[in-house]
Amino acid sequence: MKVYILRLRHDDPRKATGSKLLKLKLAEKYKPIRGLMVLNPFSKRYINPSDADIARGVLAVDASWRRIKEVRWPRGIYRRLPFLVAANPVNYGVPEYLSTVEALSAALYIIGEREHALRLLNPFKWGMEFIYLNKQRLDSYSSAKCEEDIKNMSEEFRGELVG
Is the separation of the CB atoms in 139 and 157 below 8 Å? Predict the structure, then answer.
């Protein structure tokens, strides 16, 4: 599965995980391609394992969470990630405030591309911590039969952490 990044200049490029993935050639700069799965936290649809059959690549928008409402989302197959907890140094332990690399690796993991997901996280000192914090959730999501299962699991995991 190809990985693409649309880099918005909201953050310091030395701290932006998307910039690092591009520099290491672990991702490509975004170019409009039909059939891209766009990770969009505002989407009503959850990513699920069957998306591997329809997507020609996965795209993350590398933007600041503080300015996320300003983003003009590129066309594609919009999917949101289910409930996960960040491991990046800026938002460690914060639910759903994932870095670009965490979002991409979670998407890949859920659609069955685990090795690819781990390869993306390897260059980051804290990368494997993301898997450690979310292992049970990621394994559950990746074994889901349908999007409705993902939605239900996500709500259950959210309730466990909040409740």
Answer: no
**How many other C-beta atoms can be found within 10 angstroms of the C-beta atom of residue 127?**
22
Question: What are residue 76's phi and psi, to 5 degrees?
Answer: 160, -165
pLDDT in tens, 65-121: 777 788 788 899 999 999 999 999 989 999 999 999 999 999 999 999 999 999 999
Distance CA 65, CA 74 (A): 17
Q: Find residue 29's DSSP bridge partners.
A: 5
Question: Phi/psi at 139 (nearest 5 deg)?
Answer: -65, -40
Those residues with Cβ within 8 angstroms of residue 68's Cβ, 6 or more apart along the chain or in another chain = 41
Q: What is the pTM of this model?
A: 0.93
Range of the structural domain that residue 116 is part of: 2-162
If one counts the domains in the chain, the total is: 1
Instruction: Select from 83, 43, 40 the least CA-distant residue to 58.
Output: 40
The two beta strands, 57-62 and 28-29, are: unpaired
The candidate with the shortest Cα–Cα distance to 61, out of 28, 39, 83, is: 39
